[in-house]
Design a protein that fits this description.
Strand 8, helix 12 and strand 9 form a beta-alpha-beta unit. Helix 7 packs parallel to helix 13 and helix 8 crosses helix 9. The chain has about 375 residues and is an alpha/beta fold. About 45% of the residues lie in helices and about 15% in strands. The strands form 2 sheets. The protein has a 9-stranded mixed beta sheet, with helices on both faces. Strands 10-12-11 form a 3-stranded antiparallel beta sheet. The protein has 17 helices and 12 strands.
């Protein structure tokens, strides 16, 4: 889609007016612009021609003064809160959004608006993330923040919130794409996080200020997250997680998709493990991942982020340590007694599928039992 020509305040008001009409969304607005040149032109077009493109319900509601009042009130609230109203006609509007089939005609921005064009990494996952998942998301956010890579997420409970917090803890940049108006936090328990992002990061919404967090808003915001990012990381995702919607958009846009292998008996990791089986890139080292997407993660290996070890200082794992492990993990460790091996060879020696072996090796790495070497080779810690 080409960038539309007009960027006047009246055009912004007209775009928002169209967006409030029944049956009209970004795709229909795009069709209206292609037919009538501008949003203002669409609003003033003959009813018969407007109905042909927008539909009868939108044609009937087009002249409703209440629609204009809703837009006026929302723009007044945006002004009081210091929001920037950015239309797709302006040069600051990210070009990457035009690669979507349905780019948002208007964005409402609060915070450091310069972050909008910097790209970044989307870190997504389950709202009901496990303690392991949230810890990994926080550590990943910290490492990306140290490396100067913006963390993009949806400010939801679980993985999203942990990733935002990790970036903020080290003074890094973070972008929250929200599924409601940018005037208030959702969920309400994230009010303090929301305020911190307003001070040090950026909040992005395509919805009018005052718009409530309706269920169908969240899949819509996921496409924006994918388009604003260079890569997407799924930390943890169940079989029906909304994070998988972000992945679908990322694949359509040609973005790299990474997934963190998880325990095969944990439902919270069913979706992310399936992504690995389908060809997603395995994220098995935070430091190496950050090196690849954004340069060295300064301090990423600091003690606060390092996995705990059993204090053996290297060499073979103790029998006591191995006795606490499940049988597949013990087979993997036994295979490493002779020295480092590639994950394919380890999986074959332990009688496991490669994705399963990777998931178990990541768990062992987090527990300090194994270390990963370049080229997906592993050795006993």
């Amino acid at each position: 889609m080409r960038r539309p020509a007009s960027a006047s305040p009246r055009e912004a008001h007209a775009l928002l007016h169209l967006d409030q009409l029944p049956g009209v969304g970004p795709r229909r607005i795009r069709a209206l612009i292609e037919s009538f040149g501008t949003a203002e032109g669409a609003l003033s077009a003959p009813t018969r021609h407007f109905r042909e493109v927008a539909g009868p319900a939108a044609a009937t509601a087009r002249g409703d003064r209440e629609v204009g009042r809703v837009v006026d009130d929302a723009l007044a609230l945006a002004g009081r809160l210091g929001m920037r109203v950015l239309t797709w006609s302006e040069t600051a509007y990210p070009q990457s959004l035009f690669r979507l089939d349905d780019p948002p005609p208007v964005l409402f921005l609060r915070g450091r608006t310069e972050l909008l064009g910097e790209g970044g990494v989307s870190v997504v996952g389950s709202r009901r993330g496990t303690a392991r998942g949230k810890d990994l998301a926080r550590r990943l956010g910290r490492a990306l923040g140290r490396a100067g890579v913006p963390v993009v997420s949806g400010m939801a409970l679980g993985v999203d919130g942990a990733a935002h917090r990790g970036a903020l803890e080290v003074g890094g940049a973070t972008v929250a794409v929200v599924g409601r108006g940018a005037d208030a936090a959702y969920p309400s328990s994230h009010r303090r996080l929301f305020e911190e992002i307003l001070r040090h990061g950026l909040v992005v919404s395509e919805f009018l200020p005052g718009t409530p967090p309706l269920p169908h808003h969240f899949p819509r915001r996921n496409r924006i997250m994918a388009a604003l990012s260079e890569s997407v990381v799924v930390v943890e995702a169940g079989p029906r997680s909304g994070a998988l919607i972000t992945v679908e958009h990322a694949l359509d846009l040609g973005r790299d998709v990474w997934a963190v292998p998880g325990p095969i008996d944990t439902r919270a990791c069913d979706g992310s493990n399936r992504l690995l089986a389908d060809g997603a890139l395995p994220l098995v080292s935070i430091e190496r991942f950050v090196d690849e997407v954004g340069g060295p993660a300064a301090g990423a290996g600091a003690p606060a982020d390092a996995p705990a070890t059993d204090g053996t200082g290297g060499g073979e794992q103790s029998e006591e340590t191995r006795s606490r492990l499940a049988e597949p993990e013990r087979r993997l460790l036994s295979s490493l007694d002779a020295g480092p091996l590639h994950v394919d060879d380890l999986a074959a020696a332990a009688g496991l599928d490669v994705p399963v072996a990777l998931a178990l090796l990541v768990r062992l790495e987090l527990d300090g039992a194994v270390e990963q070497m370049p080229g997906f080779h592993f050795r006993a810690a």
